[in-house]
């Protein structure tokens, strides 16, 4: 999943929350000027509203991550080329006890399967970054 968490009273907005959470969870200080924008808000499975924020962190090779072990078990990245290959894209179908069904994206063949809200946010980001390719 991506860095995230509840908005603190000191956070001015969703962007400030995202920048703080990224610093607390990954040890990366992202400048507000690196923020590209905010995606539409989404509900999570607990009924909370998630406000995804997209930012440019620069080259990953130049990034020093210092994950907080109390909040982060593992960090991995996936190249854009990997996410755009059709053999790495799929969908998972769910059905609730009431019979309602829904479909969510999933990204395969990496170090981990990317699914759920993380896959939805990834899909929305790909639609914005490479609309002709995804």
TrEMBL record:
<keyword id="KW-0479">Metal-binding</keyword>
<protein>
    <submittedName>
        <fullName>NUDT8 protein</fullName>
    </submittedName>
</protein>
<dbReference type="GO" id="GO:0046872">
    <property type="term" value="F:metal ion binding"/>
</dbReference>
<dbReference type="InterPro" id="IPR015797">
    <property type="entry name" value="NUDIX_hydrolase-like_dom_sf"/>
</dbReference>
<dbReference type="GO" id="GO:0010945">
    <property type="term" value="F:coenzyme A diphosphatase activity"/>
</dbReference>
<dbReference type="InterPro" id="IPR000086">
    <property type="entry name" value="NUDIX_hydrolase_dom"/>
</dbReference>
<keyword id="KW-0464">Manganese</keyword>
<feature type="domain" description="Nudix hydrolase">
    <location>
        <begin position="1"/>
        <end position="109"/>
    </location>
</feature>
<dbReference type="Pfam" id="PF00293">
    <property type="entry name" value="NUDIX"/>
</dbReference>
<keyword id="KW-0460">Magnesium</keyword>
<dbReference type="InterPro" id="IPR045121">
    <property type="entry name" value="CoAse"/>
</dbReference>
<keyword id="KW-0378">Hydrolase</keyword>
């Amino acid at each position: 999943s991506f860095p995230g968490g509840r908005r603190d009273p000191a956070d001015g907005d969703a962007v400030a929350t995202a920048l703080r959470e990224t610093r607390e969870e990954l040890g990366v200080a992202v400048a507000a000027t690196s923020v590209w924008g905010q995606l539409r808000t989404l509900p999570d499975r607990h009924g909370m509203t998630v406000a995804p924020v997209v930012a440019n962190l620069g080259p990953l090779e130049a990034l020093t991550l210092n994950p907080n072990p109390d909040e982060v078990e593992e960090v991995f990245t996936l190249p854009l080329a990997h996410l755009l290959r059709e053999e790495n894209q799929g969908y998972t179908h769910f059905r609730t006890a009431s019979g309602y069904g829904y479909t969510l994206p999933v990204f395969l063949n990496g170090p981990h399967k990317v699914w759920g809200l993380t896959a939805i946010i990834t899909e929305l980001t790909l639609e914005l970054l490479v609309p002709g390719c995804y």
